[in-house]
Specification:
Elements lengths: L9 H16 L5 H8 L3 H8 L7 H11 L3 H6 L7 H12 L19 H9 L20
Length: about 140
């Protein structure tokens, strides 16, 4: 293996790290569990996680469809198309100290002041709005 070039492209490393974090959020904390879930061998998933290979779109489509993820999130880090609760949890994880500085959100320091609030918001249950029927005499500006 002497003289071999380091084939860890920064983009592939970033995508792999985002995939690893997302898989853990979905309940697949290890490469073995994710590989079993998508029907591939663990070395392939390890190569994605380590940035040695780029995750094929064909492997991500079923996961994105089943878990309401977007290819935009996996490949570009754009969380705007994710469900709000999942997007908040994933962005909070990206802002954590466990993620290398190069992969954190722009402007994030070692411990962003908002990370505690994001983490708290991600773990709190979503409150459903209270709905009630309006009486015939209550218009509340509808008419």
């Amino acid at each position: 293996m002497r003289g071999m070039k380091n084939n860890r492209d920064p983009y592939r490393v970033e995508v792999g790290e985002r995939l690893r974090m997302t898989a853990a959020e979905l309940g697949f904390p290890t490469a073995t569990l994710l590989a079993e879930h998508i029907g591939l061998e663990r070395p392939a998933v390890d190569a994605w996680y380590n940035g040695k290979a780029l995750v094929p779109v064909q492997a991500m489509l079923p996961i994105c469809e089943r878990y309401y993820l977007t290819l935009d999130w996996i490949y570009r880090g754009n969380a705007s198309g994710l469900p709000m609760d999942r997007g908040i949890r994933l962005l909070a994880a990206m802002a954590s100290a466990d993620v290398p500085a190069a992969l954190r959100l722009p402007g994030a320091g070692d411990e962003p002041p908002h990370s505690a609030a994001l983490a708290r918001a991600a773990t709190e249950p979503v409150k459903k709005p209270v709905r009630r029927r309006l009486k015939a005499t209550e218009t509340h500006g509808l008419c």
